[in-house]
Every structure is written in structure tokens, then in C-alpha cells.
Amino acid sequence: METALARVLPEPVIAPEKLHAAMRYATLGGGKRIRPMLAFAAGEAVGADPARVEHAACAVELIHVYSLTHDDMPCMDDDDLRRGKPTCHVQFDEATALLVGDALQSLAFETLAGAEACVDASTQVAMLALLARASGSRGMAGGQAVDLAATGQSLELAELEFMHIHKTGALIEAAVLLGAMSGGAPSAAARAGLERYAHCVGLAFQVMDDVLDAETDTATLGKTAGKDAAQGKATYLTLMNAKEARAYAGELIADALAAIALFGAAGSRLADIARFIIERRY
After folding, report:
1. Distance between CA atoms of 245 and 258, rounded to whole angstroms?
2. CA–CA separation, 73 and 90 (whole Å)
3. Which of 89, 175, 199, 259 could be disulfide-bonded to 35 (CB atoms 3.0-4.6 Å)?
4. Which residues span the domain enclosing 264?
5. How many structural domains compose the chain?
6. DSSP 54-111
7. Poorest-confidence range of 108-112, 209-213, 220-224, 236-240?
8. What is the CA radius of gyration of the chain?
9. Is the distance from CB of 136 to CB of 166 less than 8 angstroms?
10. What is d(CA 260, CA 228) in angstroms, rounded to the nearest whole number?
């Protein structure tokens, strides 16, 4: 993915040089790449060509990095560390960071619109619509708006999960479905299994994020530890203790694994990623 993203991103010698350098700074050299891995794993489950899946994987990661760049800005979460290095607005400036997010979002759709991204045009149009919906007010951006509005408030579990299904889960689901759709429209059974899998791993990912934010140090996380509690954010640990949260994440992963049983050995990489999500330490 590092190689693929470096190829997609404009070189820093191309004008405007500062913006292109900042785009590469924000995107390259860090991150778990969970969403691209999910795209490739879903593509493998349905037999899609990895060369086509690469377009979807890059597009989803570019959207993810754009969201991180904006989330870290002073008007949002106001953080100064991301992926073990200064955040984009700290390394450059706020205006550049804002433009980096804008440009990465546009580049994501340009990448997914490439001729080699899918085997047929109608499915490719559906992929573009899916990514747009997952990124917008009914997906990631909407979830972030709910998160900001809920700061300092107590949420019930259903309210918290509504927020995370949008803020985190929508793009994770998009990664899974786009990877599968790179080979053409999946069967109804395959799509239903992948959607259920993505729903469960998306929530489990956020549960573990909340646990790790409370239990892990900044150097290991690569971002400021304990920031959610300090800002009064609603998290799973405001509703349950860490042991209960880990158990809940385990239940979600068990559901995810059951959802992809229909793929047999072809779904083994999806299963590996699901297990990694609850075993990770960063």
C-alpha cells in the first residue's frame, strides 16, 4: 500500500509543491492500513483481481487520511500527534492541512474512477456512490458531527453505536464492499455476509480503540493517549469497564467470523484481520 499510495499521490516537485508535500506527509509512512487490508481481503474472498482492488484500497485510505487530517485540526479534536509524528497542521499550517483534506478527498474519487478499478462500468458507478455516501453526512462526516455534539454528554449504548456505525463503521464497510465489488457485483448472499462482517468488525474496532486509548501509552499508540477522557468524549468505557468492553469486542468478532463462513478458505484473510482487530496493541 505504501508503494501504491506513493504512486497515486502527486510528487512534491509538482506545483503547488507545498500542498503536494503535505499530502504525502499526511498519507505516507505510518498507519495500520486496516481499511486497505480489508479491501484486499474481501476481494480475495470473492476472487477479484488484486490489481483492480488496489484502486479501491487506495481510495478508501485517502478518504481515511483526509478525515484524520481534518479531525486533528484545532477546530475539531485539536491534536498534535498522529501516527507517531506531528499532525499535518503542526508540521505545515492550518490552511495547508485543510487543503490537504480537500485534495485527498478529491484524489480518492479520481482514483476509484480509473478505468482499471472494476470489471464493469455499472458496478464502478455504484462503487463511487457507495464511497460518497460512506464519506458524507450519512456516513463518516455525519458520525463526526454526532461525536462533536455529544462531547460532555452521557450516551446510551444504542446512541453510542449509532455514532460509531457512521463515524468509523461506514468507511470500514465501504472498504469491504468496494474490495469485493472490484471484481463485479457480488451475489446477494456474499454481499449480506460481507455487510454483516463489516458492521461487526467496525464496532469492534472502535471498542478496542476506546480501550487502548485508556490503557496504552502515547508512544505505542502513535497519537495522544487519554485524549477522549480528557475531552469528555462518550466512549465504550463510559458505559462499561475494560474487561466488559474486551468481552463485547470478542462477541462482535465471533459474529463477524460467522458471517463470512460461507466463503470458506477464501475468507481466511478477512478472519485474520478480524482477530487482529481485538488482539492489537495500537
Report:
1. 20
2. 9
3. 175
4. 2-279
5. 1
6. HHHHHHHHHHHHHHHHHHTSTTTT--SEETTEE-HHHHS-HHHHHHHHHHHHHHHHHH
7. 220-224
8. 18
9. no
10. 33
E strands along the chain, which residues? Answer: 81-82, 85-86
272 neighbors 207 (Cβ within 8 angstroms)? no
Cα diameter, the chain: 52
CA dihedral 40, 218, 9, 168 (to 10 degrees): 50
Report how far apart, in Å, the C-alpha atoms of 195 and of each of 104, 172, 190 are: 26, 10, 9
The pLDDT confidence band at residue 31, using thresholds 50, 70 and 90, is confident
pTM greater than the 0.85 cutoff: yes
Written as nine digits, the cell of 130 is: 457507495
> Distances from the Cα of 123 to the Cαs of 66, 91, 132, 155, 196, in angstroms?
25, 39, 14, 38, 20
- 84-109 pLDDT, tens digit each: 899 999 999 999 999 999 999 999 99
Task: Output the domain CATH number for residue 109.
Answer: 1.10.600.10
Q: Which of 130, 23, 35 is nearest to 66 (CA)?
A: 23
